[in-house]
Amino acid sequence: MIKRKRYIFTGIVQGVGFRPFIHRVAKEHSLSGFVQNRSDGVVVEVEGSVEALDDFIREVISRPPPLADISRFSQMEVDVLQDDEFRIITSRKGDRGEVHIAPDIAVCDECLHELFSPPDRRYLYPFINCTNCGPRLTIIRGVPYDRENTSMACFPLCPECEREYENPHDRRFHAEPTACPVCGPSLSFLDSEGNVVSTKNPVREAKDALLRGDVIAVKGLGGYHLAVDATDDIAVIRLRNRKYREAKPLAIMVKDVEHASMIAHVGQKEKDLLLSRERPIVLAKKKENTKISPHVAPGMAHFGIMLPYTPLHHMLMDERFFALVMTSANHKDEPICIANREAVSRLRGIADFFLVHNRDILVRCDDSIAMIAAGKSRVLRRSRGLSPKPVVLGESYPEILALGPQIKSTVCIVKKDCAFLSPHIGDMETPQARDFFHESVSVLQTISECAPKVIACDLHPGYYSSRVSRGMSNHIIIPVQHHHAHVVSCMAENALSGKVIGLAMDGTGYGTDGQVWGGEFLVADEREFERAGHIRYYLLPGGEAAIREPWRIAVSLLQEAYGGAWREVAERLDLIPEKRHYEIFDRVMKLKINSPYASSLGRIFDAVAAIMGLRRHVSFEGQAAMELEAIAVKDTDVDLPFGLFEKEGLLLLDLIPSIRELTEAFLRRVPAEEIAFAFHQTLRRAFIVATETLREKTGLHRVVLSGGCFQNRVLLEGCVMDLEDAGFEVYSHSLVPTNDGGISLGQAVCAGARIKRGV
Predict the structure, then answer these.
(1) Chain centroid to CA 566: how far?
(2) pLDDT digits (tens, 9 = 90+) for 175-227
(3) DSSP type of residue 267
(4) Please, how many CA atoms are within 13 Å of residue 611, restricted to the half-sphere of its CB?
């Protein structure tokens, strides 16, 4: 019996070789019909025997193309048309989209082989790509994903490329960025003023400049990198000085896994992550006495390492370089540069030369960052290679736009059971960053074909995103508390529903009582939460200044620990920069002048680092805590006490006894590595006792870990192990960042849950 079926496939099914794959499978099973890209997905009609139709759909679902990701499909029987062939027909635009745009993917092995094969017509062509690799998100203007809707529209195909593009049996069939030296983009080498340097080989000019110690701005997939030789101390210092990046770690690129293994401990999971098609920056534990300049990641336990992911990177990384610094091309708190004129203007005084091309980057997309912890891959910055692939949720929600937090910002759109997160935006402190924020909202609305009328934002009234929400008339605005959003983001990526115990540990977030939260024990579901406990409040002397100067927080904790004797202890620690500050601080803390209360665990990490003399001023967020983690490597008999008690229905964790004891240990000259390890161990013990107490009160056994403090491997791995040993089901982040980069997902799901339940 002959039948005809229509299928509509949604997900990442355009621009990834899905149509030629369907064409091939249909032909193999002697089916007629067609396949077509539409705004609502890929529609397929196939006609043939019942057995052949069953075999067809079984093969499509079981082994789609490498980059395809079918999120769902529908099927229905339609009238038999008795056509005699299977065709790929022209794309059609519809009213609403169900198409998911693929992320940018590292160059594939087949293209890499052609790149370095002299007989190939694309030999050493830095824009080589095919259906299985290359740019996607960063070149898109709209959907469906056709060449006319990308920045490749201005590069008409030459006859040879067009033959490949139109041939269903060629791996470049409808590979929208496909090109060659005859018809595609090209490279140029510019001096520091943006003037073209006359050369037949821009890549060789860039290599020569790098060998001289120059700083080169390199245009990549989603923006520019600033590159120097990572083994050249002077070049690395020069880059830091010009970029005003005093100590924040710089990412490095090495040629292959073997080179990565020479400088860091690369286990099988790190290797798999480095070689994955997403090619993130991977945080791997440093080895001693490597060729890498000590100025690349001073005070850190890990290098941020990535492998080449564009053809141009592979051409740059030849035998002359052991490793290159490849750091985002921007100033502090500004987004990465993407346009040639923009780069020359914004990077004046930083870059000596520019290696540029004339394929426009339409969507900024910084490098993703990931690590292996507790046996799993953990995304710390979700951007190139990952965005905008959706997070599939456990249930369907109304359309929501979530505007994210103030730092490490992303925005998120939820549509049905898919959450689309923007590439990493960063901190919302500059006009350029705020422009990027609005760009990101526009991009998400374009690729999701969705303009939600429900807006989720942070509860903090002063955040830029919150202020934006208040200006959005004719929208429903739903504020979501910061730490509730943390917990819900972890629940969302793990498809959890219902009440959980949430440990939300981070730097700062605005609480419902107007105080600074950051050490929270919540009982929460997707819609609401109860603050079941927290770290006992302490003062932040000077408010925001205390974040930049952790010695201020140390003074506050020492006063709590020692009372009136805190001055003597602070003097022995040489804690306060100027002696006149002692009386000032006594008065400030007594009268609580510009000194809000805080429960933040992140700030306590900073204070401990200050007490131990590791870091009393920070140049980037999290620096002191990261340096404390880096030395927490030596087991110890040091036992730090803590208090846990209930007051007015809240469970309070008192870490002041720990602060006093670790200070005494430091003054007794106990090795810093032991004290740092003891502090981490104390937090593990405290969290277990607090969580077990909440289990007894609530009957809940599912625990969710979220917040920036769980970027700390020592803390995360210890807590996961301890909680599982205590019989809890433990959930943590993998797909989205545990830091504020995941907040927008939690906001969106929380707002969606409230709308669904009529709140």
Answers:
(1) 41
(2) 999 999 999 999 999 999 999 999 999 999 999 999 999 999 999 999 999 99
(3) -
(4) 31
Instruction: Please enumerate in sequence order all residues whose Cβ is within 8 A of that of 144, keeping only pairs 6 or more positions apart, or say none.
Output: 14, 37, 38, 39, 91, 93, 99
In the block, residue with structure tokens 């059971």: 417
Structure tokens that stand for 462 in this block = 């002063």
Q: Which of 682, 666, 680, 685 is nearest to 633 (CA)?
A: 680
Q: What's the rounded Cα separation, in Å, for the pair 655 and 70? A: 49
Residues contacting residue 340 through CB under 8 Å, at least 6 positions apart:
190, 194, 219, 354, 356, 358
pLDDT tens track for 75-89: 999 999 999 999 998
Q: By C-alpha distance, which of 447, 443, 522 is closest to 691?
A: 522
DSSP result, 212-267: TT--EEEE-SSSEEEEEETT-HHHHHHHHHHHT-SS----EEESSHHHHHHHB---
H-state helical runs in 8-49: 18-28
Instruction: Check residue 361 and report its DSSP letter.
Output: P
Residue burial 323-333, b: 16+ Cβ < 10 Å; e: rest? bbbbbbbbeee
User: Contact, 446 vs 409, CB < 8 A?
Assistant: no
Alpha-helix residue ranges (DSSP H) falling in 300-381: 311-316, 340-346
The two structure tokens encoding residue 624: 């002191």
Q: Which two tokens stand for residue 622?
A: 């999290």
Query: Is the separation of the CB atoms in 279 and 106 below 8 Å?
Result: yes
**Residue 159: enclosing H or E segment and its boundaries?**
helix 159-166
Give the span between the Cα atoms of 676 and 130, in whole angstroms: 50
As given in the structure block, the two tokens for residue 368 are: 């993703």
- Packed helices 601-611 and 551-562: angle between N→C axes, nearest 10 degrees: 90
CA 314 to chain centre: 24
pLDDT tops 90 at residue 443: yes
Phi (first) and psi of residue 86, to 5 degrees: -110, 130
Number of neighbouring beta carbons within 10 Å of residue 320: 11
Task: Tell me the C-alpha distance between 100 and 143, whole Å.
Answer: 9
> What does each C-alpha distance from 3 to 45, 427, 574, 710 come to in angstroms?
10, 57, 84, 55
What secondary structure letter does DSSP report for 404?
-
Residues 6+ apart with CB under 8 A from 448: 97, 413, 415, 420
Helix %, strand %, coil % of the chain (to 5): 35, 25, 40
Distances in Å between the Cα of 136 and the Cα atoms of 9, 47, 277, 386 are 19, 32, 13, 11
Cα 199 to chain centroid, rounded: 38
Question: Rounded CA gap, 735 and 726, in Å?
Answer: 25
pLDDT for 136: 93
The one-letter code for the residue type at 523 is: V
Alpha helices in 563-709, H assignment, sequence order: 566-573, 581-591, 601-611, 623-631, 656-667, 672-698
33 phi/psi in degrees, rounded to 5: 135, -145
Nearest to residue 492, comparing CAs of 280, 728, 738? 738
Domains, in order of start, for the chain: 2-88 (3.30.70.100), 187-369 (3.90.870.40), 370-488+738-756 (3.30.420.360), 534-731 (3.30.420.40)
Q: How far apart are CA 606 and CA 550, in angstroms?
A: 6
Burial class (CB in 10 A: 0-12, 13-18, 19+), 425: buried
- Beta-carbon contacts of residue 673 (< 8 Å; ≥ 6 apart): 631, 632, 633, 634
d(CA 75, CA 7): 4
Contact 365, 423 (CB under 8 A): yes
Digit-coded pLDDT (tens) for 449-478: 899 999 999 999 999 999 999 999 889 999
Q: Are 250 and 367 in contact (CB under 8 A)?
A: no
Q: What is d(CA 130, CA 124) in angstroms, rounded to the nearest whole number?
A: 15
| Exposed / middle / buried, residue 702 (Cβ in 10 Å: 0-12, 13-18, 19+) | middle
- What are 194's two structure tokens? 């943006």
The pLDDT mean for the chain works out to 95
